[in-house]
Structure formats: structure tokens, C-alpha cells
Amino acid sequence: MTEPAIVFDKVTRAFGAVRAVDEVSFSFPHGALVTLLGPSGCGKTTTLRLVAGLELPNEGRITIEGRDVSRLAAAERRIAMVFQSYALFPHLNVLENVAYGLLVNGARKQSAEAEALAMLKTLGLEGLGARLPSELSGGQQQRVAVARALVLRPKVLLFDEPLSNLDARLRRRVREDIRDLQKRLGLSVVYVTHDQQEALAVSDLVCVMRAGKIAQMGTPTALYEDPADAFIADFMGEANVLHGAVIGPGRIALGGVDLATAMRAHPPGPAQLAVRPESVTLTPDGEGLPGRIGRAAFLGQTREYEIETAAGLIFVVTPAAAPAFAAGDAVRCRLDRVIPLRDAPA
């Protein structure tokens, strides 16, 4: 049985009275890309720094591929980190940047440059070795930073908000590059972001953090389709969180209306019910929760609506090809899928 890449066992990191990481336990599998996701101040960056050895735990145990590294400094862990700013040396060319770590570790210049050239080729940067970082695009700089980390052959590669400095189009391309590289090389990666779409796109597992603890951990599909509570439902994409009741299998009461819907098993009784914006079908009449369009917007591929109902305001996203409605139109909201939630902790 393969050792997990990283294990946290009741790890706490406190700064004075503030527990940035509070008795966190998890096991990250070898060869997976695991994303730490959460709002500002949730503990995700501190967790990454604990993995890297840039912070040491006050309590608990950290192991990397079976080795206890809890008290080891960063240089002793065989961890490489790609920073938000890339941290490339502006006065060194691309080849010198990538070879730098090898030279610091005692490699001969000829050997270091040969390994650096091979890594540049692996990352599609062949022929760019003589350029300065300022002569590269943002995506190319990102790949140089990754090459500099990978040439050291780390056991785990860490990314700290790696796409935050890129524009929207480049973000998508670079995240695809990172995912492709991780799969191709079988890397164990821990990736920090606050961007839910980014986390859904690149991850094998997503670990959502809140107030220094793990709120929920699972595959992107599981967290999106079966969030544990209202916090996860709202954080993992948009969700309408409504107060209603579960009547029985496939039946709910919402806004005084008895509705049939697809849903996971849940005991009958009052419940918070999450409805994704794309899980609502709008019709001018028929079955469904009655409502009135308060706002309508055309966004090219989709249309967005805010619908006033007896259960509260519902945000809906439909394909542009679906029937269109205007502000003031009376509609019926057919809830194609509803997610019963447990209450989020205070």
C-alpha cells in the first residue's frame, strides 16, 4: 500500500490567541492535486506553509511520504513551492533561473544547466533559455517558476495562488497547463486558491477550510453536488439557500407549495434546501413554484434571472437557447434538483 503524500494529525498553529490552523487532520494521496480552498483568513495559506516548513506546528504531527517532518526546516523536506509572484531573478536569464537551485545545492554548472535544459523542454520552454524574465509572457514566467521548482525533484510541489497575477483568458490556459503537467508527471501537488472555479477545474480533491478547520473535503463533483452545509453550498459556486421542509423521498414543501424534485435521502421535517441556479427550469405555467421575474439579463451563452417567490428570491441561470422571459413576467420554477443541508455551524 502506497504511503499518503502528506498526513496532518491534529495539527495546530497558533499566533498568540488566534488559532490559524486548529487541530486539523487529513491525509492527501500520493500523485493527486489537492486544493486548499476558502475565504481570506480561513487558514489555507498557513496550512500550506506548515507543509512547506515555513511554519512549524505548536501541536500535532506532519508526515510527508511516511517521514515525520514536524520539526524539520523547509530545506530538509524536499518540498518545492511556486509563489504567487513567481519570484524569478530579474537579472538572470531563464536557464540560469532554472539551474539556480541545483547550483546552490552543489551541482556542477554543466550538469545543472543540462538538467535545466531538459526541464525547460518538458515544460514547452525549449529555446527560451537565453531570455530574461521580463521578455516572457505571464504564462511563460509561470512555467519557468514551475521548471525551477521541478528540477529539484521535490516529493511535493506547492502552489500559492499561482494564477492571481494573470488575466482571465491566460488563467484558464495556465491552469490547464498545470493540471496536464501534474497528471503527466504523477506529481503530488498542494494548491492554494480562493477561486472556486479554479479549484473545480484543476483538483482531484478539494479541502474547504473555515476558521482554521476543515469544513468539508472531497472530489469537486461531491462538494458541488452534495455540500455538507449552507457554507459549502454557497462557497462552492452560487446556491439559493431556502427554508422549507422535506415531506418524503423526492418531495419537498417550499413557499407553501408541495413540489416533486430529485434529491438525496433526508429525514422528513424542516430543512435548509440548496438549489443551484442551473437546476431550475422556467416555464410560463404548469407545475412548479410560482414567481415573478424581478430582473433579467442576457449574457451571450446564458441568461440570468432573479425571481421573486413566496420562498424568497431565487437566482436562475438558463441556456441562451431556452425560452426567454422579461422583467415582470409570471413564471413557474421547476426545481430539477434540490440539496437538503444541515445547518452550518456558527
Explain what the structure shows.
- It is a single chain.
- The protein is elongated, with a radius of gyration of 24 Å.
- It is 24% helix and 36% strand.
- The mean pLDDT is 91.
- The chain has 8 helices and 20 strands.
- A hairpin with a 2-residue loop joins strand 11 (240-248) and strand 12 (251-254).
- The chain has 2 domains: 6-225, Rossmann fold, CATH 3.40.50.300; 230-341, Beta Barrel (OB fold (Dihydrolipoamide Acetyltransferase, E2P)).
- It has helices at 44-52, 94-104, 109-122, 138-150, 168-185, 196-202, 220-225, 230-235; strands spanning 6-15, 18-28, 33-37, 59-64, 67-68, 79-82, 156-160, 189-193, 205-210, 213-218, 240-248, 251-254, 257-260, 269-275, 280-283, 289-298, 302-309, 312-319, 330-335, 339-341.
- By secondary structure, the protein is of the alpha+beta class.
- The strands form 4 sheets. A 6-stranded mixed beta sheet has the order 6-7-8-3-9-10, sandwiched between helices.
Keywords:
five-stranded antiparallel β-sheet, 8 helices, 346 residues, OB fold (Dihydrolipoamide Acetyltransferase, E2P), six-stranded mixed β-sheet, Rossmann fold, alpha+beta, 20 strands, 2 domains, single chain
